[in-house]
Amino acid sequence: MKNKILVTGGAGYIGTHTCIALHEAGYEIVVYDNLSNSSREAINRVSNLIGQPIEFIEGDIRDAELLKKVFAAHDFFSVIHFAGLKAVGESVAKPLLYYNNNVSGTITLLQVMAEYDVKNLVFSSSATVYGDPETLPIDENSKRSCTNPYGQSKLAVEHILEDLAVSDDSWNLIPLRYFNPVGAHLSGQIGEDPNDIPNNLMPYISQVAVGKLNKLNIFGNDYPTVDGTGVRDFIHVTDLAQGHVAALNYLEQKISLNEYKNDQEYSVGFLPINLGTGKGTSVLELISTFSKVSGQAVPYQFASRRAGDIASCYASADKAKELLGWEAKLSIIDMCQDSWRWQRQSPNGYK
Ligand code: NAD
Ligand code: UFG
To answer: Would you call 99 a catalytic residue per the annotation?
Structure first.
């Protein structure tokens, strides 16, 4: 059965939620993570939630020798590649670290995959590859451009995957372009665990609501949006996790057809797909919903725009629905409720 999946970065925020969804869908998983932005406790909690130990290897995607041992020991159907650094500000300060980790690391992984003839990959890309969009909603054919090293590293990997697909049509490569993942597992046992003061909106709001931070700064109230604040396509991490299961199902289906009919018409090649809800929510709307569902005040003040931010960003989610049969189901209320449950139950994250 084609059911064994290598999950790089599987100890992280989106990875842990996806491991649970993969397990529930009947996949066998092996997690490979260097724990640079996660912890063993996250793995323990996933093991508890699924009721069995997870096979976990502490390792770096830049370590070709260790990767080779892992590929030699397992018969993988596909890799889901979450491993990467993701802080935009840090990437501006440390571009070499970001290019080395995210781009060189991915090249090393792809080389080992080629050597072991594992040519199916689901890659964590980002809506950041669209830069400042010319039209909304953003579909997969929109122009791509990035302004910071983090975004450039995602775009560079996309270009590498495109070239790889052209060079050899036995590769099946699906970059999933996530919009703004938020929320947490319904159990409240796993969620996003930022190291320092959060950069992103939802964890910042949660920490204000729980009393760890005093006040939220809203970066800009003069954007051409519904209320002047930024608009984003927030998507529940559980929906996002299901999007990965749908992508694997799609790969399996195409590859079976390909083997059966021996017809390259069914090869996947390079197939970018947005994972978003298709709906935009403003910063003020998110704060208001969060306050209602948590019963907590979220004090805020307006501050100047954050460098590099755009006014509005939301997905066309049609391609995911059409090809993968996937669409987001959970609402902004669910996202706030679940982020709040995680924050309240684990005010210090996994520490
Ligand atoms: P995360 O930091 O929680 O998870 C990433 C995991 O990768 C961490 O557990 C980290 O320890 C691991 N890792 C990093 N470098 C590694 C390396 N060289 N070798 C092995 N493991 C390594 O981040 P996340 O939010 O779960 O994001 C997962 C992926 O999705 C990332 O590639 C990120 O860029 C991408 N993404 C995230 C968002 C978001 O807002 N969270 C949006 C778009 C795309
Ligand atoms: N915001 C505030 N105050 C804060 C934090 C954020 O007002 O303290 C605002 C931002 O200005 C923006 C909105 O909230 O208007 C969302 O900001 P986030 O930082 O939560 O998310 P971004 O859309 O800026 O970026 C995120 C990830 C990127 C990823 C992108 C698209 O950080 O890595 O989504 O997936 F590329």
So the answer is: no
